[in-house]
Write a structure and sequence with these properties.
With 280 residues, the chain is mainly α. The protein contains twelve helices and no strands.
């Protein structure tokens, strides 16, 4: 069951990443995030209520939640902006190396880190470099700068890595479902409501549908991960960490993104690195 839940989580997160990216290409990163935050509350609030009352609620908890929300939004901005410069099949796998950032923070904090983690980090850097080489070609889509896209993917990995670390500091106190709901509520307050107040939230039916799938997918994907982790955290991390692989495959198979051979080598190295980071 853990295997099935983990694979479902990766699939849902991968689809969410692609649909959110496509919404961004239509209405811009800020509007796509605004709609995704707003619409995702349809799932986030009921899941939080079903999980029971939140745990510890104080100033310390609030500060951690603010940090987590800021990192979540920062990562989304990087990914959604990145796919306007380059291909989804490059940005998504690079952003999926956020586990390596969490490992780096552990190293800085003085925690023991395995040789596998260090090797995987090196492999992720090499893979990201190769994945950014050259320009991808997609019928009907022009990419202005694949290297900037790759850098933004790295920025998302950095932001989400800090989010992952911070979440570990507070998750047991507040509760995972409440943490997700609160962080996304902050996203609504910071991005969605100001856009609505200024009447700048673009109404594009196709983009709204894509953002809805992205927002709900992000919430459900995390919930599936939590269920999968009950059967083994390492296995769940390995499987769900492949959301970038799912997004890349969708980009190549469905969106017809065409990459150079060396970029495929880079993506393969990133996939191996994500697995290593999850296991290590």
């Amino acid at each position: 069951m853990g295997l099935v839940l983990g694979l479902l989580s990766a699939l849902v997160w991968g689809i969410a990443g692609v649909t959110g990216s496509l919404a961004s290409r239509r209405i811009g990163a800020t509007n796509a995030i605004g709609w995704a935050m707003l619409l995702s509350m349809v799932a986030a609030i009921p899941l939080a209520l079903l999980s029971g009352a939140p745990g510890r609620v104080d100033v310390r908890t609030a500060l951690w939640v603010l940090l987590i929300a800021a990192c979540m939004l920062g990562g989304l901005v990087c990914v959604y902006a990145g796919v306007r410069y380059g291909s989804i099949s490059v940005v998504a796998p690079i952003s999926a190396t956020y586990g390596g950032v969490g490992a780096l923070i552990s190293i800085i904090a003085g925690e023991p880190v395995s040789a596998l983690i260090i090797a995987s980090l090196s492999l992720a850097v090499a893979g990201a470099f190769l994945a950014a080489k050259g320009e991808a070609v997609t019928p009907g889509q022009q990419y202005s700068n694949q290297r900037i896209a790759a850098l933004l993917g790295g920025g998302a990995a950095l932001a989400w890595g800090v989010q992952l670390w911070a979440g570990g500091q507070i998750q047991d106190d507040l509760g995972a479902s409440w943490l997700v709901a609160c962080s996304r509520l902050i996203g609504v307050v910071v991005i969605s409501l100001p856009l609505l107040a200024r009447r700048q939230l673009i109404v594009d039916r196709t983009a709204i549908k894509l953002a809805f799938v992205a927002g709900i997918g992000e919430v459900i994907g995390f919930t599936l991960y939590l269920r999968a982790s009950a059967y083994g955290i390492a296995q769940a991390a390995v499987l769900t960490g492949q959301y970038g692989t799912v997004a890349a495959l969708i980009g190549v198979a469905v969106l017809k993104e065409r990459l150079r051979g060396i970029q495929y080598v880079g993506l393969a190295l990133i996939i191996v690195a994500v697995i290593g980071l999850s296991i290590g």
